[in-house]
Amino acid sequence: MARPGLVGEPALPESQLAAGLTIDRLNTRRDLVGQIEDRMRERDAQPALDNFDRTQERAFNLLTSSQVRAAFDVSRDDPRLRDRYGHTLFGNCALIARRLVESGVRFVNVTWDLFWDRVPINYDSWDTHTRNFPILREVNLPEFDRVYAALLEDLEQRGLLDETLVVVMSEMGRTPRINGNGGRDHWTFCYAMWFAGAGIRGGTVHGSSDAQAAYVRDNPVSTADVCATIYECLGIDPDLTVPDRGGRPVPVAQGGRAIREVLA
After folding, report:
1. 20-79 pLDDT per residue, tens
2. Would you say 246 and 236 are in contact if contact means Cβ atoms under 8 Å apart?
3. Model pTM?
4. Strand 249-251 relative to strand 241-243: parallel, antiparallel, unpaired?
5. Rounded to an integer, what distance in angstroms lies between the CA atom of residue 84 and that of residue 149?
6. If 100 and its partner were Cys, which of 29, 105, 132, 143 is the partner (CB 3.0–4.6 Å)?
7. What's the alpha-carbon Rg for the chain, to the nearest Å?
């Protein structure tokens, strides 16, 4: 059972046509917009219009794609599977992520929801400046463990895990010292992340901290190394260069090196 205040189901905003607006009427409007833009191009061709066209094309595809809407419809899944993910916004989003991967989407981002006053323990997501330990014990850790395990098991059972890289990360860690409010503040010197799935050797631990989890003790890893590892798993050469705005070649991994110890 979901705890009170954690229930939530994500929605795809503006994914349904307005009342009375049929596909034919939508196409008529699209044709009219195209005629206006053709006139604008004749008058003054601008690169910005090409970018606008691509954005507009994606918007129309979103409105007219039954496949996109179906991927966001978690009611299509077995209720027992939904129970495994948990009836929370984060759980439902992870389930939708699996559905999107199964539909062929190449990149999916799932963000932990900031519930604010919907959780009755002074909840600030993972930004635990106050009441760090009860928040982690009562909400964050059990909910994360449940959803993460369900996602990996679901991907594996569907034959998708070997070709899907799952990365769990944040932008910082927490201070080793506990503040006066029972919380832990921002800390960038040492923190952890998880890799699973495509190209990763399961159960591998790389690097360690000191006894207070304050500083890295051995095998430090940079953000560039993390990027290089992700590229390696995706079959992209980390040394591949792309031109910057000045035309200069820049390595996509910014000089990082793949963490070989965690690769299968």
Report:
1. 777 777 778 777 777 776 666 655 555 555 666 777 777 767 666 777 778 888 888 999
2. no
3. 0.77
4. antiparallel
5. 9
6. 105
7. 23
